[in-house]
Amino acid sequence: MIDLHLHTTASDGALAPAELVRRAAAAGLTTISVTDHDTIAGLGDATTAARELGLTCIPGIEITAVEGDRDVHVLGYFFDPDASALGSFLKAQRADRVRRVHEMCDRLAAAGLDIRADSVFSAPLDADERSIGRPAIADALVRAGFVRDRDEAFERLIGRGGPAYVPRRGVTVGEVVEIITAAGGIASLAHPVLAGLDHLVPELARIGLAALEARHSDHAPAVEARYRAMAAELSLAISGGSDYHGDHTANGASLGVVTLDAADYAGLESRAHARH
Ligand code: AMP
Ligand code: ZN
Ligand code: FE
Ligand code: FE
């Protein structure tokens, strides 16, 4: 079984990379990709653990692009993890995440919800390599007793349009596609139903987008079918996975529940090989 969308403690997942891989193996997965937000800090440990357990672990990432006032997630696969332009781009992405967390904490404090920013940054991995995000703010709000759970934090305070929401600053989807491609990888538009960019997909395909993540835990069967049809029309491959963030978290399916078909994976791999 194949799952190409997994998060670890390198970003907002609950499990450390090696532990995630052990759990993936136990759930019957055989080919995986760790796709943390704006960081590849988890790939080394994940790859080592996968090798020990006989799993295939391909390089992965989920990069946040910005289109207008929307965040759009772009997945990258099969890139060279040592590509220096990619590394410095990701470093800038993480710096903007830090900037945004501080600004959101300021807004929360101004609203009487003081969670000290340094309580948001407690982390198991090297702070410079790990990426911070709104889920860490949500968790700090829960710890402080201001909200019940992450969902309430997003709904009332930090979701798009909420009183403490601060937009990301970053590059467009097209630029992210180019950065991933220049690092030898292929780009897939993550959970397109959440991206809300269907009208841009033909243009993105023209500039090198390789795939659509038609298969995702937030895609109902009819939605998956719609993106499969769009991919077929534009000669794009299909990627997919659970978007697992840990057990009992609001987002992402359980391990082994939403997986990618072998035929889809073969199509994705052949797009990657065509690039080398
Ligand atoms: P950020 O990367 O800082 O923009 O935070 C976005 C991430 O927060 C998403 O990738 C999800 O993992 C997570 N997220 C978004 N909405 C929610 C929600 N309602 N409850 C919990 N986590 C969420
Ligand atoms: Zn996430
Ligand atoms: Fe995402
Ligand atoms: Fe994700």
Structure report:
The chain is of the alpha/beta class and 276 residues long. It has eleven helices and eight strands. A five-stranded mixed sheet has the order 4-5-6-7-8. Strands 1-2-3 form a three-stranded parallel sheet. Helix 5 crosses helix 6. The longest helix is centred in the middle third of the chain and has 27 residues, at 84-110. It starts with a strand and ends with a helix. 47% of the residues are buried. The model has no long low-confidence stretch (mean pLDDT 94). The structure holds adenosine monophosphate, zinc ion and fe (iii) ion (2 copies). Adenosine monophosphate (AMP) binds next to helix 5 and helix 6.
Mean pLDDT across the residues is 94
Q: Supply Rg.
A: 18 Å
- Please report the total strand number as a whole number: 8
- Gap between N and C termini, in Å? 26 Å
Q: Give a list of the ligands.
A: adenosine monophosphate, zinc ion, fe (iii) ion
H/I helix tally: 11
> Which residues form runs of ≥5 with pLDDT under 50?
none
The SSE string, one letter per element, is EHEHEEEHHHHHEHHEHEH
Write out the strand line-up for the largest beta sheet, numbering strands in chain order: 4-5-6-7-8
Rough shape? globular
Q: Briefly note the structural class of the backbone.
A: alpha/beta
> In this structure, how is the largest beta sheet organized?
5 strands, mixed
Overall helicity: 40-55%
Strand content: 15-25%
Please give a handful of descriptors for the protein shown.
276 residues, alpha/beta, globular, binds adenosine monophosphate, binds fe (iii) ion
